[in-house]
User: What shape does this take?
Amino acid sequence: MSSVHVIDSHTEGEPTRLVIDGGPDLTGLTVAEIRTELAKNHDGMRSAVVCEPRGSDAVVGALLCEPSDPSAQVGVVFFNNVGYLGMCGHGTIGLIATLAHMGRLAAGDIMVETPVGLVRATLHDDGRVSVFNIPSYRSAASLSVDVPGYGTVVGDVAYGGNWFFLTKDNGMETDLANLDALTRFSVALRNALTSKGIKGDDGGEIDHIEIFGAPKRADADSRNFVLCPGLAYDRSPCGTGLSAKLACLAADGKLAPGQVWRQESLIGSLFEGQFQVVGGCDPLPQGSPSGKGNHLRILPQITGRAFITAESKLIFDPEDPFRNGILP
Ligand code: PYC
Assistant: This one.
């Protein structure tokens, strides 16, 4: 690989870098198999595209692929500074905005094959994008975790395409001025989950931490901080994180199907979320104590906006000692 053609965008502040040309030829594989193959034999492409000196810890990369499912029009594998993602909500919104920018998509619906399933997206006339994420659910409610230096932290474990531990701000304001403290707390919490062997119920690592506090915007229901696997925070309200949050609200009977939840991010950007129930147990009646009502499967709908920021050719000089990025 001597160069790749990329288009950069940001979705509510969170960057996505889509590789549209020049990546490894992996035709004939499913998108899930492409993710495995990239991790096994082409990981240098991931780190070269998203890590410094060409990228940064915040950049989420995406490889545009041929889908194997005949009902999908495109396939995509998302990756970051440390590895690969199952799904990415802000990245899918960025993908759709980029396909529109390339003239490959007009307003309407498109099916996207991701490593964890098929996702429908709608490009609206006003440029906003709705992503109908994969079925999401809460696997554990009100779990107590002893976090060294912080005491007992109570939160939920939920799946929204990635695994999340969701908790309240524990007295720490969800403000950009508190970024270092929020990051330290979330890293300690994630380490505590790992050391206690707490995982998603499919054995998946809980590699995203989501902390909720009071909104600052008058039109928002809540504000969040999301720690991503490579320790960057999500500048957007996090699409898979909002899916996990909707699953918890649904399981607790705190949000009705079709009711809109407005999630503000740490930088003040916003996603709108709502859900339909697709299976599993019934939601708890309003006001019931949590601890039950898990595994209610919902189909989340996340809406936000992405903007194109650059179109470029990334060059990988064989003489460059950092051609695959600056690695730990
Ligand atoms: O929007 O789902 C998301 C996401 C995951 C990691 C960064 N953004």
About this structure: The longest strand covers residues 137-147. Residues 14, 60, 88-90, 228, 234, 236, 238-240 surround pyrrole-2-carboxylate (CB under 6 Å). The longest helix spans residues 179-195.
